[in-house]
Structures are given as C-alpha cells and as structure tokens.
Amino acid sequence: MPPVADQELMEVVDELLDRNPNSISTMSELSRKMHEIEQRQNAESWRRNLRKWRRTNAKEEHIAVIARAFGVPRDRLPAAKSTLPLSEIDRRLAALEATVGLVDESTTVGNLLEELVTKLADATERLRDLEAQSGLGGASQAVTQ
C-alpha cells in the first residue's frame, strides 16, 4: 500500500473494503457502521457522504469515524485537506512579505524568500482569476477588500 499521504481518502477506503477489516466489505456496511459510531447522521446520509467524498474533501472528524468503523489507527487514512479562503492566503502572503523585508537581500535566504514571495503572489493572482471565472470572484473580492 503506498503511503497514505500520497493517496486520496476514498482510494484508501476502497483498499480497506477489499481487505474486509472489522467485517466491512461494502459501502453499505461501512455507512451502517459509521451510523453506529456517530448517530448524528443516519446510515443513508453517511452513504451519500461517502459518494460525495470521491469528488470533494472530508472533514477530519468524518475521517476519524471511518477509521473507527474499520477499527484501524487514524494514521492509516490520509489527513483532511482544507482549502484556504483567498483572504487567508492574502494574509499569509502579507506576513511573508513582511518577513522578507526583515532579511538582508544579499543573503541566500533573502533571495530565496524574495523568489517565494513572487511565486506566491503569482499563485494568488491565478486564484483570483480562477474564482472570477467560476463566478466566485465577486464574493471573494468583497471579503478581501
């Protein structure tokens, strides 16, 4: 099995289903077991979530429920992936730019940090373009201004 950090959550879940830990070999059995562990959602909701997580990210608390359902250690499943809002990226970029301003530009570290700031600024601009193309630009612009 490749390192879990290099795999998507549902790829690991599929591998676990093939191995049948804790007598769980189908998504239906997994969703029922998840309902037993975390009853705030019924088995059908868990089943829908499992399908949804093939396209999107699961929350950390949901990944922990999957691990408990299979009876495997949490570190056998990949970490939850979080997407940062553009405002958080802008805040981090500003903090990095401030840090770069404190480092002497003649040093190797200063040069590397300056290059990193430039690349992050390019990435932030690309994110803005993508959000504008997807129709999210207006909402994110209002948040960042």
Outline of the structure:
This protein has 145 residues and is mainly alpha-helical. 66% of the residues lie in helices and 0% in strands.
Which assembly state applies to the chains in this document?
A: single chain
Q: Can you tell me the number of structural domains?
A: 2
Q: Work out the number of β strands.
A: 0
In helices, the fraction of residues equals 55-70%
What count of helical segments does DSSP give?
Answer: 7
Distance linking N and C termini: 46 Å
User: What is the residue-averaged pLDDT?
Assistant: 81
The profile of the biggest β sheet is: none
By secondary-structure content and strand pairing, the structural class works out as: mainly alpha
Stretches where pLDDT falls below 50 for ≥5 residues? Answer: 138-145
- Categorize the overall geometry: elongated
Order of helices and strands: HHHHHHH
Radius of gyration based on Cα positions: 21 Å
Overview of the structural elements:
The structure is a single chain. The chain is mainly alpha-helical and 145 residues long. It folds into two domains: 73 residues, no CATH class; 59 residues, no CATH class. It contains seven helices and no strands. The protein is elongated and about 60 Å long.
SSE layout:
Elements: H1 9-19, H2 27-37, H3 43-52, H4 60-70, H5 86-102, H6 108-134, H7 137-144
Helix pairs in contact: 2-3, 2-4, 5-6, 6-7
